[in-house]
Known about the structure:
- The structure is a homotrimer.
- Chain A folds into two domains: 6-151, Rossmann fold, CATH 3.40.50.10790; 167-264, Elongation Factor Tu (Ef-tu), domain 3, CATH 2.40.30.90.
- The first copy, chain A, is 20% helix and 28% strand.
- Chain A has helices at residues 19-30, 48-58, 101-106, 130-143, 193-198, 249-252; strands at 6-11, 35-40, 67-71, 82-87, 91-95, 109-114, 167-170, 173-181, 187-192, 207-210, 213-215, 231-234, 239-243, 260-264.
- In chain A, the strands form two sheets. In chain A, strands 7, 8, 9, 10, 11, 12, 13 and 14 form an eight-stranded antiparallel beta sheet that branches. Chain A has a six-stranded mixed beta sheet with strand order 2-1-3-5-4-6, with helices on both faces.
- In chain A, helix 1 packs parallel to helix 4.
- The A-B interface holds A 12-26, 28-29, 32-33, 35-36, 38, 45-46, 74-78, 80, 122, 126-129, 132-133, 136 and B 1-3, 6, 8, 10, 15, 35, 37-44, 50, 53-63, 66, 182-185, 220-224, 233-237, 241, 245-246.
Amino acid sequence: MPSHPLITFASDFGTREYYVGAVKGAILSVNPEVRIVDTSHEIPSHDLLTAAFVLAGYYDTFPLRTIHLAVVDPEVGSNRRALVVQTSRHIFLAPDNGLLSLIFEREEVSRVIAVEADHHYRKPVSPTFHGRDIFAPVAGWISKGLDISAFGPEITDYKKLTLPGAKPVGEGVLEGFVLHIDKFGNIVTSFSETSIAQLGGLQEGSSFNLNDREITRQVGCYAEGGDGELLFLLGSSGYYEIASNKKAASRILDARRGMKVALRLIANR
Amino acid sequence: MPSHPLITFASDFGTREYYVGAVKGAILSVNPEVRIVDTSHEIPSHDLLTAAFVLAGYYDTFPLRTIHLAVVDPEVGSNRRALVVQTSRHIFLAPDNGLLSLIFEREEVSRVIAVEADHHYRKPVSPTFHGRDIFAPVAGWISKGLDISAFGPEITDYKKLTLPGAKPVGEGVLEGFVLHIDKFGNIVTSFSETSIAQLGGLQEGSSFNLNDREITRQVGCYAEGGDGELLFLLGSSGYYEIASNKKAASRILDARRGMKVALRLIANR
Amino acid sequence: MPSHPLITFASDFGTREYYVGAVKGAILSVNPEVRIVDTSHEIPSHDLLTAAFVLAGYYDTFPLRTIHLAVVDPEVGSNRRALVVQTSRHIFLAPDNGLLSLIFEREEVSRVIAVEADHHYRKPVSPTFHGRDIFAPVAGWISKGLDISAFGPEITDYKKLTLPGAKPVGEGVLEGFVLHIDKFGNIVTSFSETSIAQLGGLQEGSSFNLNDREITRQVGCYAEGGDGELLFLLGSSGYYEIASNKKAASRILDARRGMKVALRLIANR
C-alpha cells in the first residue's frame, strides 16, 4: 500500500474551467495527504460511452485499492444517484448513469452503495456541481479509511449501458460498431479480443468492413503499414482497431463513433 | 496543515508547450517536497477575465494556507509588477494586471507585496517568461516558509479590473454581461446570487434577455429542461447561468463573452 | 534529493484518452511512492520535433536526478529501440527515434542503454503501447534505484535528428527555419542565441525575413510592440522568436512549422 492513498480523476470538465481545480480542492480539504492523479479531463461533454471506455482503459494499471473518481454527469442535480462501487481490487465513484458499465462487466463487484449521507457533503451543495460538493468529499473520506457503508445503502439496481459487442449477422459475419476514435485517428471497434476468441478468433483472410471499405491487412503494429494503407490490429485496450501508419484512419474512412463495422471471420471467396 | 505544502497552478500556457513543465521544475528545484496541483492550463491566451473567473472558482475549495499561482501575463517583461497577496486564508501569486480582481473583492487581504528581491529569482531571468524565472522560485520559497515580506515592499495601488456586475437600466431591469462561456456552452452571466439578493432576489416571472431572446424558465439543474429549451439557473460559481439540457446554450443563442444580458426582475405584464 | 523521486511525463497521448492514465498507473504499480509530474500531453501526434523542443524546454529546470519520460512513438512495436539515457545530471527515457536529439546536443551523456530486459516489462506487452508496458515499468524501477545497466546493453548508435540551425547563404545572411509555433502564435526560429553569438551576435539593423516580410524591430519583451507590429526577440527557450504584442504573429505572417527564415546580421543598406 502506498504511504499516501491515490485517487485517479477523469471528467468532461475540460482544461480551461475551474471545475477540475474545485474538485481537487474539495478532495484535499477532506484529506490533505491524498495524491490525485489526473487521467483525462477532455472527455467530450456528456459522453458516457467515451468516459466508460477511458476509465476501463486505465483503472487496471493502478495499484490495488486505488480510488477511481470519474465524473461525466449530464443529469447532475436530478434524482440520478451517486455511486460508490467496491470491487475485489479497486473502489470507483461515479454517477449512476452507465459510466461504470465496463467496470461492472470486468470486475468482481463486492458492494454498490448509493450515496445519501449528506452530512459528508460540502455545503451548500450546488445542484449543478456534485463533482465538487458530493463526489469529492466522499472520495476524500474514503481515502481516509472510512468504510463505504457509511455513505448509504447497498443497491443492486444500478444502471448499465448495454453495449452490443459482436452480433452474428450471417455466415461467419459479425456486426459491431465504432466504439471510439482516438486522438491519432485510430478507429477502435466494439470487437474485443475475448469475444472474437470465443467465436474461434481471427483467421487468415479475416477482414473488416467500414463505410463500404474492406480492410484486409492484419498487422501487429501501426508501423508495418504502407503510406495511407488501411490496417487492422489488436489494440492496447483489448479491442480490434482499424488504423493506418502515422495517418488518421478515421479521416481516410470518414468514420464516426457509433458507425456499423462488419467483421468477416472467414475469407470471402 | 498538510505534511507537504500545496501550490495550485493555473495559466494560459497550454498543454502542448514546455511552459507548464518549466514552471513546475523551477518550483521543485527550490522546494522538492511541494505538491503542485494543476487546475487549468488552457485558459485562452492573454485572457485575464477568464483567468480571474477560473481562479475565483476553485481557490476557496482548497485547504487553508494553500499557495495559488496563476500566470496569465501579456505584459511580461515590462514594468508591470509581480504580486504576492496574503489573505486571512490563502496566499496568491500573479502578475499585477487585474487577474486577482475577484480575490481582492472576496477575500480579507492582509498584505500585498510587489516582488523585487531578485536574489530569489532563477537566473538569468528571461524577459518573456517570469512564470519560470520569478513566480516559480518565489512560490517555492514561500512554500518553504519564507515570510512574504522577504520579497519586496508592501503596496496598496495594485490593479483591479472593474467588472460591472448588475447595472439598473429601468424599472426592475438590470443590465449585465456574459462573464464566461464554459466548455459545455453554459453562459455564465455577471449577475451574482449576492448582487441579485441585495436587489430583492429573483421572483416568479423573472426573465433574462440575451441576443433578443427572452429566457423565462428557471430551473434548479440542467436536466429539468426539455430538448433544446433555454433555461436559467444559479450556477455553481455563484452566478446565474443561461443554459440548455445537454446542449450548448451558447450555440443556440450565438452568445459571445462580453455580450449584454438583461435581467428583468419582475414579470413583464 | 527529494524524499519521493520525480518522474516528468510528456507525450502526444492527449487529454481525452486512457493512455496518460494507463502509463501513470503502470509506473505507480511498480513504485507507489513516485511523484509523476505532467508536463505536456497535447504534443501533436507523431511530432518528434515538437517533442524534442518541448522536452528541451523544461528538463533543465528540474532538480538533479529527475527522471524524464517522453513518449512520442510512431514506430511503436517495430524494431525501434527503447532508450534509457543517463547524463551527468538527469535520466531520460524515450523511444530511439530522435526525440532526445536536443538532449544529446546539450547534456554530458554518461550512458545510453537499449532496453531489452523484458522480465521488467508489464505483461502481456501490447505492440501498440510500449508507453504503458515497457517505458512505465522501467521508469518505475529506475525511480526505485535500480541501476540502468539492469535494462540492457550500452549502445552508441542511437538516433539523432540533424536540425539545420543557421546556414550561411550569403554575405551576413543566414538561413534557418521555423522550429515551433507556440500556443500564443509566437514563431520560434531555429536561430539559437549561442549559434548567433558565435557569428558575432545580432547588431543594430539586424533583421529577420519570413514569407517575404522583413521584421526589423528588435525588442526585449512582447509588450514593447505596437498593435499588430511584428517584432523579434530572444525567447525563453534560447531561440530567437518572431512575435507580436498580444497577437499571433503566426497568423499575421501565415507561418507554418518548417518554413524558411532568413536572418540578416548586418543592416541592409
